[in-house]
Specification:
It is built from 16 helices and 5 strands. With about 325 residues, the chain is mainly alpha-helical.
Length: about 325
């Protein structure tokens, strides 16, 4: 629920950006060389104030609009007139309007990992356009999203499908919806950084040509963002020591228990072999418990059948049954 709220709220912020650009002074800024507004002056000094200043009535909107249109959506500090004023605004609030943030990426990953069962590392390295290895993300005619990732240790491609839900309400925010949001939100940064990664993010330093790998959701950033989400939840959640890999493992184990020990269904979800799933993901104690339950269920069925065959019945005349 927490991850779904983060994704829904983050996407809502991102959708506001286009309207903010239309309502901004972007055209007026382009006519100046210093990004100072001739129509607004400081009360005491009489000097023109920056379009990005907190003293400007549209300072925040102008900041988002300028970064989105003139800086390729990158918050990364590049030299431009009025840049120091940008620091006066919340970096977190600005980044939400420009593309995928660390928090949004991790929340979306948790939703995607839970449903199709994609390994967290494979998902973090997912590519959008088809690569020579065969990795890519595609939207099907029925609205479903297929994501094909490379499983390095097995050296094979794993294909996962996120079907489109029948309803579009907030409560149905699922893996399909999260993937569609990501594909839309990544576009501006992907073009600026020439990145094919699904989880392309703005960096914390000046962009460097040929090093697009550093502008994706690296492990350190992912773990920090996940910890921040967990810390914002009730204390008992952190005591359980959750991690993103545990999401997939827990769901796989739950599927195995709910299916009564159907290992095939679990291996399809996890993307592993039968032996690997049993050895690495299903604890022996749980295996024994489910096995004993299946034996008891079988015994109960046999007893029921036996009792029905030997139970006395009455004949048509109402006399007791005679053997």
């Amino acid at each position: 629920t927490r991850c779904k709220s983060i994704v829904a709220e983050g996407y809502e912020k991102f959708k506001q950006t286009q309207e903010m650009i239309l309502n901004s002074d972007l055209n007026a800024m382009r006519l100046t060389g210093d990004n100072l507004d001739p129509a607004h002056k400081a009360f005491r000094s009489g000097q023109r104030i920056s379009f990005f200043s907190k003293s400007h009535p549209r300072g925040f909107i102008n900041t988002v609009a300028y970064l989105a249109e003139e800086q390729n959506g990158l918050y990364t500090m590049r030299p431009f007139a009025g840049a120091p004023h940008v620091n006066g605004w919340s970096a977190y609030e600005i980044r939400q309007h420009l593309g995928i943030t660390d928090e949004f990426a991790v929340a979306a990953m948790c939703i995607i990992i839970d449903e199709p069962g994609i390994n967290v590392s494979d998902l973090a390295n997912a590519k959008v356009k088809k690569t020579k290895e065969g990795q890519f993300v595609t939207i099907r005619e029925d609205g479903g999203v297929t994501i094909t990732t490379l499983k390095p240790r097995a050296n094979k491609l794993i294909e996962r499908h996120a079907p489109k839900a029948d309803t579009d309400c907030k409560e149905s925010l699922d893996a399909n919806t999260a993937l569609c949001m990501l594909l839309q939100m990544r576009e501006r940064h992907a073009q600026a950084l020439k990145s094919n990664y699904l989880f392309v993010l703005d960096g914390s330093s000046k962009t460097r040509a040929g090093e697009e790998d550093i502008y994706r959701i690296l492990d350190t950033r992912r773990k920090l963002a996940f910890k921040a989400i967990i810390d914002s939840m009730p204390e008992w959640v952190a005591k359980a020591q959750p991690s993103m890999p545990k999401i997939r493992v827990s769901r796989g184990l739950l599927k195995w228990i709910e299916s009564g020990g159907d290992t095939l269904e679990t291996t399809i979800y996890l993307g592993n072999s039968l032996l690997t799933a049993l050895r690495n993901y299903i604890p022996p104690s749980i295996q024994e418990f489910v096995y004993r339950k299946r034996v008891r269920d079988h015994q109960n069925i046999q007893l029921l059948i036996t009792n029905e065959l030997t139970a006395p019945t009455s004949n048509d005349k109402g006399d007791h049954y005679e053997c």
